[in-house]
Amino acid sequence: MTDPIRLSKRVIELTGxxxxxxxxxxxxxxxxxxxxxxxxxxxxxxxxxxxxxxxxTPDLLEPMxxxxxxxxxxxxxxxxxxxTPESRWADDRAEVxxxxxHFARLTTALPLQAGASGLLVLTQDWRALRKLNEDASKLEQxxxxxxxxxxxxxxxxxxxxxxxxxNGELPPVKAxxxxxxxxxxxxxxxxxxxxxxxxxxxxxxxxGMKRIRIGGVPMGKVPVGQWRYLGQSERF
Length: 236
Hints:
Number of helices: 6
Radius of gyration: 23 Å
Oligomer: single chain
C-alpha cells in the first residue's frame, strides 16, 4: 500500500505536465479516478486507476452564464444553493459539459422585483455582467403578474401613458392581459416595488409575479428551481 497523494501530483506523474497544467486538467473534468470524473485537485488517491479522457487539454475554464428559474422569496445566497448539477434542466440544449467549476464565483445583476419568481442571471463572465449593468436602462424585462381585483376603467391606457400618484409619477409601461387573472408587463430597469405600485394604481392587487425575459433572453420552459446555460447564440 502506498500513502495517498493529491490527484494533481498523480496527474503530474502520469503526464509529465506542470502542477498548474495538472490542476487545469482536473478542474476541466478531464481526469477520472477508477472511471469516475473527479474535479478536485486536492482529492487523495492511492492505488486507484487515474486516467485522462480523450481530447484532454489543460485550458482555463470558459466563464459561464447560468439562467435560474428562481423560486420566489430567495436571497442571492439562497438562490446560489439551488444551483447544483442535479438541478440542471434535463432539456437544456446548450452544448456545455457540466463542471462544478461553473458554480464558483457567480455574480448577478438586474434583481427580481420583491416576492417575484423567475429568470435570474448568474454569471462568471465579466462581459455579460457589464452588458447587464451598463445597458440596464435599455434592456426590457418582461413579467407575468397574477392579480386580484377589478381594474379601473381604461386601466391599460393609464398604464401605457404613465400615472400620477400622491408622491409623484409612475412611468409608462407596456401592459396587456394574458388572461382574466394575469397581466403582462414589459418595462426597462424597474425600480424595486414598481410593478406592485402600478397594479395598485389601477385597482389591482398582486398575487404573484414571474420574470420571463430579459432583453432577448427568455426563461423558456425551465421549471421553477431548475436552471440552464445561456446558449452561445443568445444575446441580452
